[in-house]
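hey can u check if this looks right to u? its 410 residues, i copy pasted from the old doc so theres a chance i mangled smth
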Amino acid sequence: MSLVEIPGSKSVTARALFLAAAADGVTTLSRPLVSDDTEGFAEGLRTLGYEVEREPGEWRITGRPQGPAADGAEVFCRDGATTARFLPALAAAGRGAFHFDASAQMRRRPLAPLTGALRDLGVEVTHHGQEGHHPLSVRTDGVEGGEVVLDAGLSSQYLTALLLLGPLTRTGLRVRVTDLVSAPYVEITLAMMRSFGVEVRRAGDVFEVPAGGYTATAYPVEPDASTASYFFAAAALTGRTVTVPGLGRNALQGDLRFVEVLERLGAEVETGADATTVTGRELRGGTVNMRDISDTMPTLAAIAPFAAAPIRIEDVYNTRVKECDRLEACARNLRRQGVDVATGRDWIEIRPGTPKAVEIETHGDHRIVMSFAVAGLRTPGTTFDDPGCVRKTFPGFHDAFAAWAQQREG
């Protein structure tokens, strides 16, 4: 058995940074993720006039319930979807004109449902390139509140951004959702809002967020369940046992449910109070719906050829509008490895085979790299055209994974 220490959750760190900035007082975050995405978020907060102090293992943020200190700013969101979607919502709570731009990769990713909802709330939002995409400007005098209808079928981050904004409005917010993907990420948001003193009422597809603001707190960031998926998959693929401390029965992140998928496909899984253990057994085939845990779709797709029967992954259309079209990227790389793959609008089916070593086309997507690195344990010689893009969420991934592989050999 091997213990693997996983860096802090990207999703939790991003939400905690928003909540801390919006709260009344000084919030201390312990074990936040340090990566390109989270550093970009913190930099964006500073640009908006928030005070962010960073020390190893601990970040302190001085909140401003009234919104950004600046009455104007130009924020570059890098590749970060949470930065690019959450910070315009945070800026809407202030007063002034705020300009946001992002990398070419992030410019391709859609924003229209969120910016449309902000417009419905009286915020002036202007897209300066393609409608519904970055770059954009937000002109605002605060947000009164009210009711909006939202389609979150491409990203739950649209809903999260509005929920986080809700307590900063003058009268509160009521959001009716017509479609929702990756629902467990919304549960993370609701749980974290409770930790900062706000209780959201939910009745079916309607979320009611009270006005009144947040209260600062000390907040520990749990390990990243999406990152843990690579080590759990490695155990499933190699017959080893991996334990990840800090992710147990009470973990916030829905992506921990990836271990349930592995269990259905033959792995042995034990989820304790504060740790999860996966032991590899022969991988079986099967059909799995990954709508709610779609960030782990590439992890399963990459190791699927080693199963005894085909693996079909369904209801993952939203993976086509991530850092790249992940469904197509997985299919293309697997085919280049000589694997028989079929795809549809929102599904991929991978049949058993023996992948050959190739240079993986990463499309600058950290999850493509980390997923095929796992499969590389059974396909020596696998390389990547952009291995460094893992800095987005796990800058030390290659060293950590190599250390794990060496333990395996030893």
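The first helix runs from residue 10 to 22.
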